[in-house]
Design brief:
The protein is α+β, with helices and mostly antiparallel strands. It has one domain. The protein is built from four helices and eleven strands. The strands form two sheets. Strands 6-5-2-1-11-10-9-8-7 form a nine-stranded antiparallel β-sheet. A hairpin with a 6-residue loop joins strand 10 and strand 11.
């Protein structure tokens, strides 16, 4: 009977550990998929909705959908809507884990997507869960994004 109870306890403990997947083991693409990150900008806020759907493998390689950026300004005189400012989509750019570079980056802290017109985007998550977006044609790194709930983002009527 003791062996049966011990075996049952081990099975329950083992199953409960599988349910709590350690996010440090999940690659960043999977971690960000379907999430929204925000940061304050002068006069308002900027939001990034990471779609990152896997579109499959083709002759070039593993292709992913990208992300869309929105902004909403705080104006005391009138209520301005949330509006689309940028779309990094696979339709426009390709977006492959590897295209013209020899390096694949797909770790829990960082991933890189290559565009078909020699663009590169590197998304990084630091130890404080702050996201930054680096683009090879930009001198500045767009950083300082923190996670927000999808419900809060949906209430902004951005999508």
């Amino acid at each position: 009977m003791k062996k049966l109870i011990l075996l049952s306890s081990l099975l329950i403990f083992g199953c409960s550990n599988d349910d709590n997947i350690d996010n440090s083991e999940v690659n960043l693409i999977e971690l960000l998929k379907g999430k929204v990150y925000q940061k304050e900008i002068p006069g308002g806020a900027r939001y990034v909705y990471f779609d990152l759907s896997y579109l499959g493998e083709n002759d070039i390689g593993n292709q992913y959908e990208g992300w869309t950026c929105y902004e909403k300004y705080n104006d005391s005189n009138e209520s301005l809507d949330c509006f689309l400012t940028e779309s990094i989509s696979s339709i426009d750019y390709g977006l492959y884990l590897q295209w013209y570079t020899d390096t694949i980056i797909n770790t829990p802290e960082q991933f890189k997507l290559d565009g078909i017109y020699n663009q590169t985007w590197i998304i990084t998550k630091d130890e404080n869960d702050i996201i930054s977006i680096e683009h090879n044609y930009s001198f500045d790194v767009d950083n300082g994004y923190t996670e927000m709930s999808l419900e809060e983002f949906t209430a902004l009527n951005c999508l």
